[in-house]
Every structure is written in C-alpha cells, then in structure tokens.
Specification:
Blueprint: E1 8-17, E2 22-26, H1 29-34, E3 47-50, H2 58-65, E4 72-77, E5 91-95, H3 96-101, E6 111-114, E7 117-125, E8 128-132, E9 142-152, H4 155-165, E10 169-175, E11 178-184, H5 192-206, E12 211-216
Parallel strand pairs: 11-12
Antiparallel strand pairs: 1-2, 1-3, 1-9, 4-9, 5-8, 6-7, 7-8, 10-11
Length: 240
C-alpha cells in the first residue's frame, strides 16, 4: 500500500557518488565504520520521514512512498535533483588579514563558517584566501539505496517516534491536533530543554499539531537512597 501525504515511516539510507561508489552518507554505523565515515556524535539507525513534508529529496520520498516494509530500492539522482550544479559565483576571495583578525589559520581543504555559511578553503597565498561556498557534492550525480523499515500509523505512535528521534523517552496522549507529553528519565540531562524545543517545533511543522503540553517525570537518584543494613554474621555453633 502506497504511503500518502502525512504518513510517517522509518527507513535506512546510504548515499554514494554515482560512478565511483564513494559513500558520503549512511544511516548504518557498520557501513560508516567500514568507509571511515564514523562520527561518534552522530546518531545511527533508522531515519524518519513524513511524506509530503520535504524532509528528503523528492525522488527519494517518491520511492519510499511506493515501498512496502522490508523492500529496498536504489535511486539515481542527477546533480540537479540532488545538491545542485557548481556555481562560480559562490567562489569568493577574501583578504588573509580578515582571517588573522578572527584568529583563524586558513588551511587549504579545511572548512570555515563565514557569516553562518560553510565554505571550503581552496587556497591561501599571496595575501588572499579563495573560498568555495558550493555544497561539497555540488555537480555530482549521486545514488541512494533506501530500505523502508516500518510505517507508523497512529498519532500517538507518531509523536512518540519523533520524541525518540530527539532522544526523549515519553508517553504521549493525542486528541485531535493537541498532544500531551510526559517525558521520563531526565536525571542529569543538561541537553533536554534544547531537544524539547526542537521536538515541539517538529511536531508543529511535520505533524501539524496545534498545541503541545509537556510534563516531566524525574526519578529519585539512587545515590539518595539510604544504604541497607548488612545482615549480621551468624556464628558457627561448632566454634562455641
């Protein structure tokens, strides 16, 4: 059964440059390690998609919408369908002194953030730095292998799946377009409030919720529990 707009699914994905098979993206920890792409800060496993919300390239979304759980498909994308063509007007030159003023050493082939835009340093000599603001894969045709793992149907399961995606364990109650979330296991989690804000935004944008209410449940730390008295040692009657 094809997925419709608003349907949610979990899927696996691996992307490679067409022709070279050089992998540049994957949801698999094993594939990432084999191809020296592993990042300990990245979350591996299934990814989620809500059909019709432009969360992935359109051609990938269309392919996933036609798959059944367990089915896999390869999708070839031209550069126009993926990361776009290279644009010469995105290659800029900056005086090297601007990097020195920012206490940045412009090393060729490294990346820098300039006014919230990521750029690759092409070269740095003769008092100037050449920056390339094109996407690293601009101009490349790519091929994605995707596998539909499962579909998520009920509103409650959709909310809880999104919560797990952002690392928040919860119980959810959904009535019409309003959701109440009870978050659990929050002890010593200093990143929780930032992830909660991201989750709320996602529920508004991707699940079209009108209101989101949070309650939080904290467990008493085991370190505060009194120590249980040790059982008294019994004397051996034979020694009496």
């Amino acid at each position: 059964m094809a997925l419709d707009n608003g349907d949610m699914a979990l899927f696996e994905l691996t992307g490679a440059i067409t022709g070279t098979n050089q992998i540049f993206e994957t949801s698999s920890e094993e594939i990432a390690k084999v191809n020296k792409l592993f990042n300990p800060k990245e979350k591996y496993g299934t990814r989620l998609i809500v059909i019709g919300k432009n969360m992935v390239f359109k051609k990938i979304e269309d392919a996933l919408a036609g798959l059944k759980p367990g089915e896999e498909q390869k999708i070839a994308l031209t550069c126009d369908e993926a990361f776009g063509k290279r644009a010469q007007n995105l290659v800029h030159v900056m005086p090297i002194r601007e990097f020195r003023d920012r206490d940045v050493n412009p090393v060729p082939n490294s990346y820098v953030n300039i006014d919230n835009r990521l750029a690759r340093i092409v070269s740095a000599n003769s008092g100037r730095v050449v920056l390339d603001f094109n996407h690293p894969l601009a101009g490349s045709d790519v091929t994605y292998t995707v596998k539909l793992v499962k579909t998520v149907s009920s509103p409650k399961e959709k909310v809880e799946t999104f919560s797990q995606h952002y690392g928040i364990q919860c119980d959810a109650q959904v009535e019409n377009d309003k959701v109440k979330i009870t978050a659990r296991g929050l002890n010593n989690d200093i990143t929780y409030h930032g992830r909660k804000k991201t989750l709320v935004d996602a529920l508004f944008v991707f699940l079209d919720m009108k209101s989101v209410a949070f309650s939080e449940e904290y467990e008493r730390p085991k370190s505060l529990e009194p120590e249980k008295p040790k059982p008294a040692e019994q004397e051996n009657p034979e020694k009496q």
